[in-house]
Amino acid sequence: MNDTASLPATDPIAATMPLPKTHPNTRPFVGTSPSGTAAELTNAERAVAFAAAVRSQLNDLPADELDELLDGLGADLEERLNDGGELGDPTGYAEELRQAAGLPPRDPKSAPQLPLRERIAAARARAASWFAATPARRSVRDFAVAVQPAWWVLRALVGAWAALLLLRHPLINGLPISYLSVAFTLALIVLSVQWGRGRWLPRAWLKHVRRVANVAAVVLVLPFLASTWASLTTPHTDYSYEEYAMQGLARNGGEITNIFAYDCEGNLLESVRLFDQNGEPLTTLSADASTPPDSWVPGDDRSYAHSFNPLAKDAEVWNVFPLSAATYSDVTGEPGEPSPAKPPKDELPPLSRDCSAETTADEAAAEPDETEAGAESTNGATTAARTGE
Question: pTM here?
Answer without folding.
Answer: 0.37
